[in-house]
Every structure is written in C-alpha cells, then in structure tokens.
Amino acid sequence: MAQAPLQPVRGTHDLIGADFRRHHLVIETARRVATLYGFEEWATPIFEDTRVFSRGLGDTSDVVSKEMYSFEDRGGENITLRPENTAGVCRALVTNGLTQSNLPRKVFYAGPMFRYERPQKGRYRQFHQIGIEVLGAAEPLADAEVIACGWHIQQELGIDEGTVLEINTLGDAASRDAYRAALIAYFTAHRNDLSEDSRARLEKNPLRIVDSKDPRDKALVAAAPTIHDHLTPEAAEFYAAVKRHLTAFGVSFRENPRIVRGLDYYSHTAFEFVTERLGAQGTVMGGGRYNGLVEEMGGPPTPSVGWAAGVERLTLLVEAAELTPPAPRPVAVIPVGEAAEAAAINVLQSLREHGVVAEIAYKGNMKRRMERANRINAGAAVILGEEELAEGKVVVRNLDKGSQERVAMEDLLRTLAETGAVESAMHAMLQGILEEELGGEVDDLDEDFGGETESR
C-alpha cells in the first residue's frame, strides 16, 4: 500500500515559482535601498541562547510565554529558534566587541524567524523578516532616517499607495514613570472589566494593556490616558524633532497615541506602517527606539532605533498590486543531430557569459526539443544543424511571432536583440553590447561566436 505523501509542517510553506520571485523581489529591493542609506548586512544564527530573547522581549510577553520554539539541545543548553532578530543583532554587537568603535553601526538583515502561533494568511510559524537597526545613535534624525528608509523600500516595491505611517512617542524614563502611574490608577478603577491577561499585567506592565487585542480591553483603552499629557519638556522636543525631520524627508504621517511598547528599554519613537489591504493583519512594518536593549545583552548603554517587516505580508501587497516579477524567458538552443551538440554547447555557454538566460534540452529530436522550448516559455530558439555548422550560421526563430532567419554566428547577439524575442532586461543588455560594438571591435563577441565583427 502506497504511503501518503509527506506534507509541510503546519504553519510552514514552500517558496516556488511566483511565490519565490515575489519573496526574492522584496528582499533584494530592501537590500538595495538599505545599502543606499549606508546599512551593512549582518547575518546572525537562527538559534540563540534562550536568554537573548527572554531578556530582549521580556518574560511576560506573549512571544516568550507562549510562542517561542525553545528546547534543550544534546549538550544541555537551552536554545531558542529566533522569533525576531533585533535582540540577536544587539547580542552580536556586544559579543563581537563592536560597542566602543565606529558607532553608530547601521545594520540590515533578512532571514527566517519562528513563532508558534495560529497560522493565517500572511502569517506562518516559520516566517521571514527584513529589518534595519541603527546602533549607537541618540539623535532624533536617526529615528526619522530609519522610517524614511522603510518608506523608500515600500515605494521602490510599488506598494506604498494605501499605506499610512502612524507614529507615537513613549517619552523618556521620567515620562514613562508618570504615564505608568496614570495607567495603573485608571485601569485599577476598571479592574473587574479587564481581561484575565490584562489583570495579570496591571501592576507589572500596564503599558501592555494599551496594546491588548482583547475586545474587553479595547473599550477601556479608548478612554485611557495618553502619554502626551505626561511628557517631560525634553521628551516633547525629541518627538517634535522627529516629526520635523520626517517632514523634511517627505514622509507623511498621522499620530496614534495607542502605539506602545511594553518593555522599559523602549523609549521615545514608536511607529507602524499600516494598511487596510491585509485585513486584520494590517501592520506592514513596525519599530521604534530602544535605548536599553544592548545593555540587556551585557553591553554598555547604546541608544538604538530600528524596524522589522514581515516578508510574507509585503509579498501579499506585491501580489495584490500585480507586481509579481515574470519568470525570465530563456533562449532555447536546439542542436539537430549529434554532430551539432558540441557547437550548441559552445553557443549555449557564450550566451550565458553575456548575461542571456539560455537552456538546452538534454535529449530528443528537434520536435521534442521545440516542444520543451514552448513549455519553458522561451522567447527565441537558436537552431544548429549540419548545414548551419558547415556555413558558420545558425537559425534564429522568434517563438512569439513564428518568424525565423538564418544568420552568421557573429551576428547572433545582434539578431536576438533586434527580434525583440527576449525579455526587456535582456534586450537592454544586448542593446548595450551593440552600442559597444558601434564604437569599435568587440573581441569577446568575435571570439565566442567564431567570426570577426567589423568596426562601425
């Protein structure tokens, strides 16, 4: 009896075809834009000492208490698959001895994260994040630039329309102390109406109640005090400076006093890019300032700010905007007869060396090879038979139009460019080669395709 085929673990998914192309587009676009802003890419391990996250996220957080994949390895170490990467980046700053030199450090990262939560559209147990961190900068300009970089990435992806930046301030330590006292007084008066989780957090961490998703808590939070009535003059000026800088960067925003972060090392700026295009999972990108996290990792005081974004959510927006990158259209190289295969391989590799996506079927007569060319959506076919070999020529067939012509080997690249049978990026590349030819001889082309190109 045949066994049932194995399935991916619940909450995981394969990235194949268009799914992978969207995934790749998001990460590569973010990587390119972050580089323009001076960010250097770091890669940290996907598992860490559990204390990295229990310190970084707090023992009372849902992530630590309910969602982390933690286990004891064979050496007796308590290990956790990373549920986020900010804590790992801060740990890396400390353990690599980078806390005292060349600050601020501007870090970009991309990779898989793991949380045991209920899978839903755009949310998985193994998911992927991109993120940036500025480590060692206390100035409000850093906050604004981090946000501007995130907005720039969304613009480059073409998914910025319908997305809104919401910002808030968490103030400095004195502001938070005053705000915490006001929240305790307010929620204590409504203690019996709070959810069970919020009652447990009331004394220890009342700011987490403000971020509660429980409907019972939301009704109370709507009328709760905001931090804006408790800001020190210094904290108020920091917040005002962030808003001025955002305006200078050309980033629009709206203020949302309900954006909070529950841990003590968070301060000043908190923000989220939100949209209604993702249903209940409306946050596209979120972050803020965390002036104490490096200390939690054993380092010195290091003011920092950053954000993270779920790649799966961003790819949903790319898909909805019909911006999925097309699969590259190859050129199919088709030998007719065994004698032509060696020459076909030479043509195949020459095309690839000039940046052209090229494929060859491993077996079959011309009919079968042409059928495969159509299956892989080739834009053109380059056909070599005994007659073409004897004459130093190839047949170039435009598979969209059905037209074909016999051309000299040295004219192959030019013909492919002129037929328009290859994708736009490849066409532009080939046109560049032709423009280079117009300035004089191109020895590589002559050598690769067995002829001599005249100067023009």
From TrEMBL:
Top enzyme category: ligase
Binding positions (L-histidine): E84, N85, T86, R115, Q129, E133, R261, Y265, Y266
Any one GO cellular component localisation term in the record: cytoplasm
CDD domains found in the cross-reference section: HisRS-like_core, HisRS_anticodon
Keywords for the protein's UniProt record, in alphabetical order: Aminoacyl-tRNA synthetase, ATP-binding, Cytoplasm, Ligase, Nucleotide-binding, Protein biosynthesis
InterPro entries recorded: aa-tRNA-synth_II, aa-tRNA-synth_II/BPL/LPL, Anticodon-bd, Anticodon-bd_dom_sf, His-tRNA-ligase, HisRS-like_core, HisRS/HisZ, HisRS_anticodon
Reaction equation(s) it catalyzes: tRNA(His) + L-histidine + ATP = L-histidyl-tRNA(His) + AMP + diphosphate + H(+)
MF-aspect GO terms: ATP binding; histidine-tRNA ligase activity
Annotated GO biological process: histidyl-tRNA aminoacylation
Boundaries of every Aminoacyl-transfer RNA synthetases class-II family profile domain copy: 10-335
Protein EC: 6.1.1.21
SUPFAM superfamilies membership: Class II aaRS ABD-related, Class II aaRS and biotin synthetases
Subcellular location: Cytoplasm
Family annotation (Pfam families): HGTP_anticodon, tRNA-synt_His
Subunit structure: Homodimer.
Family note: Belongs to the class-II aminoacyl-tRNA synthetase family.
PANTHER family xrefs: HISTIDINE--TRNA LIGASE, MITOCHONDRIAL-RELATED, HISTIDYL-TRNA SYNTHETASE
Name of the featured protein: Histidine--tRNA ligase
Organism: Roseicella aerolata
Classification lineage: Bacteria, Pseudomonadati, Pseudomonadota, Alphaproteobacteria, Acetobacterales
